[in-house]
C-alpha cells in the first residue's frame, strides 16, 4: 500500500514521494535469502527503497532472549509461527531481537526448561525448529521465522551478562551508569569479536536483519562532548 507524500527539503523545496507501509503482505513469501527491495538511508533521517519510496516501520520488542532463560517469553504457550502471524496480521513489520554478549561468546545449548527456577522456556512440539539449537542458532531460527512472515529484525545488544546476581534490574547494562558498550571484563575487543561471530554465522547477512543496536539505553553516553563516553568518536 502506498500514498504520495510531500516532503520539504532543507532548501524549502517540496518533493513528491510514494510512502510505502511495507506491511507483512508486501514482505511475506519472499524467501529467506531474497529481499523484496533494497533499503537505503539517504542521510535525511528517512529509510527508502531504491525507487525512492519512503519506508515506514511499525515494530515491537519481544523480550526473553537477553536474560537468564535465553528464550523469547511465551513460547511455552504458543509457537513462533502463531506469534509472528499475529504480529503481521496486526500491521507490524519489524521486531527488536535482544541478546546478551555472554551467551553469544559461550553459545550454550538452548534449554527447554531452566533448572534454576523450573521455568519451561519453550514447547518443542509447538516450535520444533528450536529444539537442539545453540544460542546463536536460536537467534538465527527466530530471525528466519520472522522473515517468513515478512517481519524485519533489529538485532539489539541488551546486556553484557545474562544475569547480574544481587543487583537491581537497571544495573544489567553498562550504558545505564557508564555510557559505554563494554566494561573492564567484557572489553571492547571481546565485544567486537562477538559481533564478528554473529556476522560470520550468517545472522547479519539475512535479508530481513536491517539494523543493529550496539547497546541498550546508553543513558551515561554523550555525543560530541569529547572523552571516552563520546559515542561520536567511538
Automatic annotation (TrEMBL):
InterPro entries found in the cross-reference section: GH, Glyco_hydro_5, Glyco_hydro_5_CS
Presence of the UniProt keyword Nucleus in the record: no
GO terms of biological process kind: cellulose catabolic process
Domain Glycoside hydrolase family intervals: 58-230
GO molecular function: hydrolase activity, hydrolyzing O-glycosyl compounds
Pfam families named in the record: Cellulase (PF00150)
Keyword entries, A-Z: Carbohydrate metabolism, Cellulose degradation, Glycosidase, Hydrolase, Polysaccharide degradation
Keyword Hydrolase: yes
Region: Disordered, residue numbers: 1-22
Gene3D superfamilies: Glycosidases (3.20.20.80)
PANTHER family attached to this UniProt entry: ENDOGLUCANASE (PTHR35923:SF2), MAJOR EXTRACELLULAR ENDOGLUCANASE (PTHR35923)
UniProt record similarity statement: Belongs to the glycosyl hydrolase 5 (cellulase A) family.
Name by which UniProt lists this protein: Glycoside hydrolase family 5 domain-containing protein
Annotated organism of origin: Chrysotila carterae (Marine alga)
Amino acid at each position: 500500500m502506498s500514498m504520495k507524500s510531500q516532503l520539504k527539503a532543507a532548501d524549502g523545496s517540496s518533493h513528491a514521494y510514494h510512502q510505502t507501509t511495507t506491511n507483512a503482505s508486501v514482505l511475506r513469501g519472499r524467501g529467506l535469502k531474497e529481499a523484496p527491495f533494497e533499503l537505503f538511508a539517504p542521510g535525511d533521517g528517512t529509510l527508502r527503497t531504491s525507487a525512492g519510496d519512503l519506508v515506514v516501520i511499525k515494530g515491537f520488542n519481544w523480550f526473553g532472549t537477553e536474560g537468564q532463560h535465553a528464550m523469547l517469553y511465551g513460547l511455552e504457550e504458543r509457537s513462533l509461527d502463531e506469534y509472528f502471524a499475529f504480529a503481521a496480521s496486526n500491521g507490524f513489520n519489524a521486531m527488536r531481537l535482544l541478546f546478551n554478549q555472554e551467551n553469544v561468546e559461550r553459545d550454550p545449548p538452548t534449554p527447554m526448561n531452566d533448572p534454576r527456577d523450573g521455568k519451561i522456556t519453550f514447547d518443542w512440539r509447538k516450535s520444533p525448529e528450536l529444539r537442539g539449537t545453540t544460542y546463536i542458532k536460536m537467534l538465527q531460527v527466530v530471525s528466519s521465522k520472522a522473515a517468513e512472515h515478512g517481519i524485519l529484525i533489529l538485532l539489539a545488544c541488551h546486556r553484557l551478562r545474562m544475569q547480574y546476581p544481587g543487583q537491581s534490574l537497571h544495573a544489567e547494562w553498562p550504558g545505564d551508569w557508564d555510557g559505554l558498550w563494554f566494561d573492564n571484563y567484557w572489553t571492547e575487543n571481546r565485544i567486537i569479536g562477538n559481533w564478528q561471530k554473529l556476522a560470520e554465522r550468517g545472522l547479519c547477512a539475512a535479508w530481513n536483519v536491517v539494523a543493529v543496536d550496539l547497546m541498550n539505553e546508553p543513558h551515561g553516553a554523550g555525543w560530541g562532548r569529547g572523552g571516552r563516553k563520546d559515542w561520536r568518536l567511538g
